[in-house]
Amino acid sequence: MTQRWLNRFGRVRENRSNQSQLFLRYLLSYVAVLLIPLIILGVLIYYSFFNILANELSKNNKNVLMQLQYTFDNKLIEMNKIAYQIYNDPKLTSYNMGVEKPLSVQDGITELKKYMVGNNLPYEVFVYYNDLDRLYSSSSAYSAADFLQYFHYANWNRDSFFQDMKSIRNNTTRQADDVSMYGVDTKMITYIVPNPNSSYLGNQITVFFMIDEKAVNKMLAYGDGDIILVNEASQIITSSKNAGYLRSDSLHSLIEQRTTGGSSSIMLEEHEFNTWTVESPNTSWRYLILLPANEAMKQLTYTKTLFAIALFCILMAAAGVIAYTMRLNYRPLRQLKAFAENKLGKLLHNVNEIEALRFTIDHIATAKEEWVRNSSLAVKEYILAKLLKGHYAEIRECNLEGKEIGLAFTKPKFRVALFLFKDYDFNGRPDRSQLISFIESQLPPEMEAYGTVSAEDGKLILLIAAEESSEAQLNGYFSSVHEVLNTKWGLQTTIGIGNEWEEVGWIGKSYIEASTAVDYRLIKGRNQIIFFRDIPPRVGFNYNYPVQQLKALEHSVFEGNSDETRRILDRLFTLIDQIDMPLFEVRCLCFDIINTVIKSMCMINKTQIHDNTNEYPDVISLAGFETVDELWTAVRTFSLDICLSIQNKGERQKQDMIDRMKDYIQNNFGDNQFLIQNMADHFQMSSSNLNYYFKQKHEFTISEYVNHLRMEKAKQLLLTTDFSLSEIVRQIGYSDVSSFVRKFKHTIGTTPGTFRKIHIG
Predict the structure, then answer these.
(1) Owning domain of residue 398
(2) How many C-beta neighbours within 10 Å does residue 307 have?
(3) What is the rounded (10 degree) CA torsion for 501, 503, 508, 512?
(4) Is Transmembrane a UniProt keyword of this protein (predicted)?
């Protein structure tokens, strides 16, 4: 007892070990499937997406600088235009601005005010006249001494001022300087625009602008960053923050390098800054952004952190899902093993669930192979019977069905041979398949042959396919087989062989020929090899094959004309009766009639008319009829049945077409653009055919029917509404009132107004 429990416990532990190993393999595979794409995704994001994001941030900073450059360039261009206009203004010449002409001076000041209108960047514009030693602005006039007293520059003394006014040849921007204006301290940027037409003796007139640093700093403001404005001489004009690091040697060294376009980093006051620089091609000013490194990549760092958190959350959620789904998925595997053991009828020890399933599938496959081997003969007979009865339109359909049992025809020409054995019953004989296999195996390698047994008469049917068989080969093959059947098997055998045909549909005809050859044994004798081609024609029998009648039959069936089909069949039967046609010829003619009817049926896609293919006589049943009357009755009944089915369905289709035409007219007669041609286009017919088709079912034309509907609608509207005639005309599809009144009076016998008065009172 104790030993049994120990053994059982040991088996349970072993099974659990197998199950745990399987569970662990699945778990590791799921985790690997999860981690591999996540790792690849992470690497791609870090080395691609974040680089793209960093480039976008850099591009954004450069765009800010480009926008500033564009703004300041426009402002400077405007100031340059003001200066050039001042130089060319006749009211502002040295002569007119002399002290001896006070009215001209006042006009000049007024003229300067005009130039300041519309440009909000300059604080003031000044014009220095060298020969007058005076300065004029848009608000006042000064002597040079008074100007330097009222506008006292901290870093621009008297000598430097006069030197710059007389000798500067290019546009010059002075750094922001402390200026005491009438005792008030402020910072001003000075922009000097010399006269481009000055003589070599020096500037006679010089224009310069004072720009309030506060206005410029407001334009330069950029969050936590500092935008520095550098003039054409690589001097810092001003910056948005005016921090202490502006005096740093490192910064001035960076400015002197004149690097533009890209980004770089710099250490200022023990802090790292990222820099971006843009230079104006028009003014040579440079615009430099200093952004603390932690602020420059703040958005990128935030995105990376967010991505890491999201990745971690996805990993944790996926791990939880894996753990949960593994428990769910493992239970069906265990149940599947129990199901497999139940089907096998025994317990499977020391194997996991997948191995148990593989063992069960292998067991089922082995059982199936055994079943296929046992049933291959039945499947083969079924496929060959369908081939003989014409159920395959192409040989590849037969090959597709026979693929499982290795049945395939690859040669293009076919013939049928029938074996009739004396005193041999195939049913229940254990050597039946051996006999068929023997006959098949004796065929030359360049030919293909498959044998089956006819359930109707017990004959062995052999279907032969070849490229082109010679008479010598066939005679040799059938002679050899016939001899072995007689000597080894002890079977007296009559072999009938039909002609060779290329089309699959004519295999049935070869069968009829082979059956006729077997029947010829009554004349030639039993236990013989009889080729159909060797049967001599009946003496005195000669007739023209009814090709035209078969074509007419095809057309009448196609059109569903049962009366014409009946007349054609009666004429063919009369032909058979008049010339005393042999039974073989009757079978062949009936075979052609059936093929003609089926061909017509397929042409009009009526394959569902006869769902049960056993309802019409096939080639095997044709060979079984022993009298002409029985054979003809079966073929005639089938042909008329098919024709009536097509005719009935055609009538339903015609009625459906008429109903759709009437619906179309009723839905569109109220449109004054209604045309019969449009209706014909809708139904994809010509207008003449449309009219003929419609009138064939009615006693009136489409136009008469449309007019009838319009008049009935008009009568209804006259009696049930108070619509005016113009509104009624619009609703029923007429184009004008007068034509409607004439038509109404001609059709109803009175005018619309009179009709309404008579019936409404």
Answers:
(1) 375-534
(2) 16
(3) -20
(4) yes
